[in-house]
Amino acid sequence: MTPNARRLALLVDTYSLFFRAYHALPAMNTSSGEPTSALYGFSAALLAELSRRQPTLLAFAVDAPQRTFRHERQPSYKAHREATPQPLVAQLGRLRELLAAFEVPTYQVPGVEADDVLATLAARLSGEGAEVLIMSGDRDLLQTVCERVRVLFVGARGQKPTIYDAERVERRFGVPPIRLPTYMALVGDASDNLPRVPGVGPRTASRWVSEHASAAQLLAKAAEIEPARLREKLQALEQQVLESELLATLRRDVPLGDGPLAAPLSAAARERLAALFADLEFKSLGPRLAALPPAPCGA
Q: Considering the entire predicted model, what is its pTM?
């Protein structure tokens, strides 16, 4: 690859897309009765983006089964989430097989979330000059958006994926991407079970965060903020706000090993995927896989 060649790394938030695929599609099974809806939806969505974006590099991040540092700090973190449906659990083994077939790095790091891994990957790859696109249905990753990093947000069923750059993030939330953890510490985040400051809505939160770069700076000026009726509430919840900001902030220092951070989809991987799609009876995916642009020379 020449120094000026385009490098686009597609980073995949695996479980986020896998779970969304399960809820978006009706039940599917092979002729032997094996459930496959999440596997099919995940594969179809990924092939569509591989065709549309034509990335030169690919990597997956998967949540580890262990508790993370966030659960250790705050036991209520994500505690409200329901148990994984059994038909989805039944597809996890095949998901591991599917990821292995891509023959690109797949990261699962104990103690942190896939989001932290993706934030670290994005920071390192963009620092090396690559353009980065994170494919996810998790808004937490919008804080990673910067000059070389964008997020392909995959919404609920029926919604088209949306590319978020820094301008779109700020237009939606009223704050730059890097300040989203402070914003979420004020308005709360139901998906992560982070509480809000009562009376503080999106408009007030965006104004406060635009004026104060962190929760600590905002709290230091709490006696002067407007509207005055919210001063006592904010001061009373100082520790909650600081803790929520910390929990909402993605790490960018996760150890990822010494190998390549991401890799191209090789010709050998395409053969493995074609065989797996045939085994899963995904008849429509074989032609889509075959239609992908050729692998880079040597891949």
A: 0.93
pLDDT value of residue 296: 60
Number of domains in the chain: 2
Could you tell me the residue range of the domain that residue 183 belongs to?
177-248
Tell which residue, 13, 16, 17, has the closest CA to residue 43. 17
Strand (E) positions, 49-198? 57-61, 106-107, 131-136, 149-153, 162-164
Helices (H), 156-258: 166-173, 180-187, 202-211, 215-220, 231-236, 238-248
Report the chain's terminal Cα–Cα distance, integer Å.
11
- DSSP, collapsed to helix, strand or coil, labels residue 139 as helix
Residue 175 carries which DSSP code? S
Q: What is the CA radius of gyration of the chain?
A: 21
pLDDT above 90 covers what percent of the chain? Answer: 83
Element of type H or E holding 20: helix 14-24
Residues 207 and 111 in one domain: no
Q: Per-residue pLDDT for 142 more than 90?
A: yes
Give percent helix, percent strand, percent coil of the chain, each to the nearest 5.
Answer: 50, 10, 40
Half-sphere exposure of 57 (CA within 13 A, CB side): 25
